[in-house]
Amino acid sequence: GAGVSQSPSNKVTEKGKDVELRCDPISGHTALYWYRQRLGQGLEFLIYFQGNSAPDKSGLPSDRFSAERTGESVSTLTIQRTQQEDSAVYLCASSLYGGTIYFGEGSWLTVV
Amino acid sequence: TQLLEQSPQFLSIQEGENLTVYCNSSSVFSSLQWYRQEPGEGPVLLVTVVTGGEVKKLKRLTFQFGDARKDSSLHITAAQPGDTGLYLCAGTSASGTYKYIFGTGTRLKV
I need a labelling partner for A16 at 20 to 30 A (CA). Which of A103, B25, B31, B93 fits? Predict the structure, then answer.
């Protein structure tokens, strides 16, 4: 596609529910990244995929967070049993291996 | 753990003034990027620097990569209201993992 696409763009969920956030990277980009950005703050690294494998999961905040990527394309970030502190913008980015990364517009998650 | 610290965190200036934002680390990076992010949008790449001592200019913006590839600066000349936003530096590890580490951000208001 022309750019990184994320869905949903906005999600309001009740505390304790599970959510899935989707990222469609730029076609042909081998690397895919997930970051979290709390209101007014910088970007917090969550996980990085090279192809379908995740060599670095060090940023996932807890075992409630998981991510997968299939077909070296779409990735899904899943948050189980959401908590209010999970409220943030979840940003996805993609790149060619070692190249410039390009961001999507983010998925805004609000846990009430 | 690699960290990138940006300073200042917040900057409010008058139109026409000059400013410099700094990005510092104790780690060496193979490349460093500067992004600008506006409310409700993802970060947008401004520039990539890869060579120690490299200077790049983008209109009124001047970017410099430190000789040791551990730090960088962004200088804006004659700031305009359109420059308002969150400026983020990001580095890729010299160890080759291609994991992008982001700085803490500088929020600029003109």
Answer: A103
Asked if A105 lies within 8 A of B98 by C-beta distance, the reply is no
Model confidence over A28-73: pLDDT tens digits? 999 999 999 988 788 888 998 988 988 878 889 999 999 999 988 9
Whether the pLDDT of residue B98 is over 70: the answer is no
Cβ atoms within 10 A of the Cβ of A90, count? 22
**β partners of residue B6:** B23
β B55-58/B61-65 pair status: antiparallel
Tell me whether residues B100 and A33 touch, CB distance under 8 A: yes
A41 at interface of B, judged by CB pairs closer than 8 A: yes
Contact A45 B102 (CB under 8 A): yes
